Amino acid sequence: MRFIVALFVAFLSFSPLAQAQTDTVKVAIIDVNQLQAESKAAVDIRKQVDVLRKNYLATLEKEEATLREQEKSLIKNKETMSEEDFNKKAKEFREKLVEKSHAMQVKQGELDKAVGEALGKLRDEIIAITDEVSKEHQYTLVMPRQSVFYFDKSYNITDEVLKKLDARVKSIKINAK
């Protein structure tokens, strides 16, 4: 039995798996949230989102005001209309409400999609630059900061990636309709 154990240990010590385990792993940590918050492109995306949302809200408020005026007019004219005409106009008004609500939901969805695409482009740039930095410094493992409880600050490559990201990408346009 001892011979079999000794043979097994000898086999494992010469196997490629054992040799791979003796290679050193060079680790780096990156704070993706910081990059998505502080990079020039991220700040630009937020500014664009603010403008688009303000425009969206202004349009929404304008539509709501128009609908309120139409509702007031319908209620005001109720006394002068036949019940049948009033019911017809009320039905048309409700249909218009549903139509406008749906249109605004579609517009909000398009805006959300466009923002998601812009953030996806930013994420792709972060990955590409992280890959470049990793190759330059021969890192074999890069982990997100959010997955690591504690690490020595010398492992953090976030600032280096941020500098390269800011140099390469200052803006990512949000293609909203």
Topology:
Blueprint: H1 2-14, H2 16-22, E1 27-30, H3 32-38, H4 40-76, H5 83-137, E2 141-144, H6 158-168
Parallel strand pairs: 1-2
Helix pairs in contact: 3-4, 4-5, 5-6
Compact overview of the structure:
It contains six helices and two strands.
Q: What characteristics describe this protein?
A:
single chain, 177 residues, mainly alpha, Protein Binding, DinI Protein, Chain A, two-stranded parallel sheet, 73% helix
What this model shows, in words?
The chain is mainly alpha-helical. It has a single domain, classed as 2-Layer Sandwich (Protein Binding, DinI Protein, Chain A), CATH 3.30.910.20. It has 6 helices and 2 strands; from the N terminus they run H-H-E-H-H-H-E-H. A two-stranded parallel sheet has the order 1-2. Helix 4 packs antiparallel against helix 5 and helix 5 packs across helix 6. The radius of gyration is 30 Å and the shape is rod-shaped. The termini are far apart. The N terminus is likely disordered.
Ends apart, CA distance between termini? 75 Å
Tell me the domain tally: 1
User: Which oligomeric state applies?
Assistant: single chain
Mean pLDDT: 87
Can you identify the CATH superfamily? Skp domain
Number of helices: 6
Structural class: mainly alpha
Percentage of residues in strands: under 5%
Quick one: biggest sheet?
2 strands, parallel
> What is the overall silhouette?
rod-shaped
Query: Which segments are poorly predicted (pLDDT under 50) over 5 or more consecutive residues?
Result: 1-13
Give the C-alpha Rg: 30 Å
N to C succession of SSEs: HHEHHHEH
- Give me the CATH fold name: Protein Binding, DinI Protein, Chain A
What is the name of the CATH class? Answer: Alpha Beta
Strands of the biggest beta sheet: in what spatial order? 1-2
Helix content: over 70%
CATH architecture: 2-Layer Sandwich
Number of strands: 2
